Amino acid sequence: MPPTADDLRAIERLHVRAWPALETAEIEGWLWRRSGGGSNRANSVSTVRFTDADPDAALDAIEARYRARNAAARVCVYDLSEPADLNERLAARGYINNETTVTMVKPVAHRAVPADVAISGRPGADWLAVYLGAITEDRRAINAEILKSIPSPCAFFTCMRDGRAVSTGLGVADGGIAAIECMATRDDARRQGGAQAVLAAIEAWAAGQGVHRLALEAVAANTPAIALYSGFGFAQVATNRFWVKDWT
Q1: Is residue 202 part of a domain?
Q2: Is 230 inside a domain boundary?
Q3: Which of 123, 178, 198, 199 could disulfide-link to 169, CB 3.0 to 4.6 Å?
Q4: Rounded to an integer, what distance in angstroms lies between the CA atom of residue 141 and that of residue 234?
């Protein structure tokens, strides 16, 4: 069955929880996030729920917090964000949509952990070498800090080929859902099945956690990644837009 509106909200909340920002504050139900570095998600406001009657006042408060840290204001809006006209409000205030991601889900199937995938409760040196090596330099130091506070239950997955790590992933479970994060593959090991092995291992682990649905977010413009996930059985169910207002 396709996810309900409540399912989509739960998935969005789990993605926020699974990749915790270094600094947060609640503003009228929205979650203000700031970490530094180049990550959109760890530096943007999550807008799953809004509890006030004046979104413009809330946006003023958000912008004041980002200005105080000499940081661009960032707001993440997805299909069920509140209020419903938030995209239009942000555009009117001069925000630019600088990245779009899609949320993808699949039901959990029971399968065995591939023999070439190692599972650990924390990221080891091999895992870090692959994941941090695959992201932009302006995200590495901050993401390494965020990895220290990933909530439990979680597990880190490393596909090993010929004695070296080639692909990584992270699973974080909560309330019958598992979020998949940190999927990465070495450039010289692409299209060799490492990512599929990691996904299979995450699914096997998730089943053992009592999870019934896997969820992940992929950059909409990353056609190869979306093809990989679609081929593994994931379907697109929501769109996430990151709006940015730079003061410079």
Answers
A1: yes
A2: no
A3: 198
A4: 31
Tell me the pLDDT of the chain (248 aa) as tens digits: 889 999 999 999 999 999 999 999 999 999 999 999 999 999 999 999 999 999 999 999 999 999 999 999 999 999 999 999 999 999 999 999 999 999 999 999 999 999 999 999 999 999 999 999 999 999 999 999 999 999 999 999 999 999 999 999 999 999 899 999 999 999 998 989 999 999 999 999 999 999 999 999 999 999 999 999 999 999 999 999 999 999 86
Query: What is d(CA 19, CA 118) in angstroms, rounded to the nearest whole number?
Result: 21
For residue 51, is it within any domain?
A: yes
For residues 74 and 72, give the distance between their C-alpha atoms in angstroms, rounded to a whole number.
6
Global pTM value: 0.95
- Cis bond before residue 153 (omega within 30° of 0): yes
Give the CATH number of the domain where residue 144 resides: 3.40.630.30
Tell whether 30 and 120 lie within a shared domain. no
Count the Cβ atoms, other than its own, within 10 Å of residue 26. 10
Which residues make Cβ contacts (< 8 Å) with residue 63, sequence separation at least 6? 73, 245
Quote the domain boundaries for residue 37: 5-102+240-245
**Within a 10 A sphere around the Cβ of 29, how many other Cβ atoms?**
14
